[in-house]
Amino acid sequence: MQRPAQKPRLLTQFEFDTMWDPDPNTLRLGILLSLNLPSTQREATMVRSAISTIRMAVNEVNEEKIIPGLNMSILIRDSQSPSLYTSTGGAAAISAAGRLISAKVGGVIGDIKSDLTKYEALMTSSVLIPQCSFASGSASLSDQATYPSFYRTIPTIIVLVDAILEVVRRREYFSARARKLGIYILAYQPLTTAGVPFDPTYTFVKNRIQSSQSRIQVVIAAGDSQFALLHEMKEAGFFGPDYAWVTGNEISSQLRQDPDVKAYDGLIMIDNGWELSGYAPYDEFLSKWLRLNPLDYPGAGNPNLENNEGMAYSCVMMLANAYRDLIEKAVPDPANRNAQNPLIQQIIAGDHAANVNGFYNQTTYRGPSGPITLDQNGDRKEGYFMTFSMQDGHSVLFATSFIGNYTFIREPHFKDGHPKPPSDAPPWAIQNPRWDNASGIVLGTLCIIGIVLTIISGVLVVYFRDNIVIKASSPTFCLCELLGILLIMIWCALHIGIPDMAMCIVQNFILPIGVTLLVGSLTIKNYRIYRIFNSVTVMNQAFQTRLLLRWMALALFLCVVPMIVEVSIDAPRPEMINIRSIQWIRCRGSMTQVWWVLSSSIIPAILVFFGVFLAFKTRNVVFLWNEAKQISLVL
């Protein structure tokens, strides 16, 4: 490709001269990064440090002959045109990835933003060229069906969330009071910071906090978006001592842009860690990094490795080790591992890039950012995280997590200035009937009595089924009536306690089935009595129990269908309702729930009206069938 007329902003002249068109007789490693980012952006610092780190790693690969029989070189491309330095241009990223594919690279490293990485990985995975990212943590990149050749050395958002929740747990936010009341995740709110609609005052977040009275807020977004949200929440009064905020980035530099920076004291920030003194791979890497000349390797020589340098280094080394394993497996004799070997010639031509997929996730690589073990999706399983607390306008490290092991250096200072977590739950009482409060005990007792009496009645019906009165009124439909009553009693009992989603779905079905069984049995029994006394041509099979049960089954089916459709489209789920200091948790249906309920009520309503008509028509039957009079009263 023809080199651009102007050198990209973040490249040195040496890099522009040697890395745009590298030696064709080498294993070319493609680099996709935004090379024209403004120097004021943190991403620019990350890109610059990553390029120097990758250069150092490639030099080490060649000096130590890690890949037998060939050297590695760097082929760099700008993933964004100079006019699209906002790191959002998908077309430019796709074009840049296509140019690397045409150049027959053996692997790709990039990009700095997850949105760009998605476009590029889609291209490289289509031809099975391995691509590694040291900065993209989006969970959407874990889809192996879409990105089969993608892996990364940065922990994903999922691993970061695990670290956040572990801090919340270890700081004992969930105390005995919270466990007693129950901690429920009722909803989450995605933050829309671009496009339409965009609410700069985050009204939806404020409404969510006010309606749920949640005490612990976790924010996972880009640093600038986090600062914008936190600033607005502070102005709205949600940064008081009753609230705890946790972010997925160390954003103290952005927070210091606010003159009232001390208002953020108590904010907990979790970020990828870099300082692993005493861990041999880190110490060795840092020693090499400090020996580099910053004039030749911009960003080098700085002992503060806070820009993913170790992860970029690991990308190169894991890919180099994969090619080494491929060659050693295919060419057992070390004497034949040279530049004249057909396999190595094919690797230089880019023909075996797909064959190294899988080599890099067979073992654990001990890199400077910690051991890297990949799962089946190419995601790093664990990471190294540092946890900070804002104190007097500055971030103070208070805990670290390395390979799942948490170490607390000091107690964090919360909003009130003391190492004491805020209240873990709102100061209200949940009003749901429970087995430990009066309303729950009364409701539960009545339900138990009703259930026991219903079961006893069913046993009596079965035992005296040959009694002339019971036999005349059909034991089968008597049992159906009792089953309907039993289901209604169970439905009432299910309202005791705090509902979960499964309970809400069960409640959705039990009531219409119970009501239909009860009303349907009464109506069908009365229908048989009506036919007997009002038809001289009726045949026995017209009112046999078997046939009438089919009509009952049809009524049940028509009643349940709307509920099945509703649950399939939008299942009911728990919803919290707050009124001053009173709180309920109920099952909330979909926006169209009332229409589904009405649809399920049509069949029972028809049965009731038809039953009332039949009760009127059979009011004067002989004493043997006088159950019709009781049915009339019931209906």
UniProtKB/TrEMBL annotation:
GO terms for molecular function: G protein-coupled GABA receptor activity. SUPFAM superfamilies: Periplasmic binding protein-like I. One of its GO terms (biological process) is gamma-aminobutyric acid signaling pathway. GO terms for cellular component: G protein-coupled receptor heterodimeric complex. Residues 439-635 form the G-protein coupled receptors family 3 profile domain. InterPro entries: ANF_lig-bd_rcpt, GPCR3_GABA-B, GPCR_3_C, Peripla_BP_I. It holds the Pfam family 7tm_3. Keywords: G-protein coupled receptor, Glycoprotein, Membrane, Receptor, Transducer, Transmembrane, Transmembrane helix. The keyword Transmembrane helix applies. Its main location: membrane. It is a multi-pass membrane protein. Gene3D superfamilies: 3.40.50.2300. The keyword Transcription regulation does not apply. It is found in: Membrane. It comes from the Eukaryota. The chain crosses the membrane at residues 441-464, 476-497, 509-527, 547-565, 594-616. This is G-protein coupled receptors family 3 profile domain-containing protein.
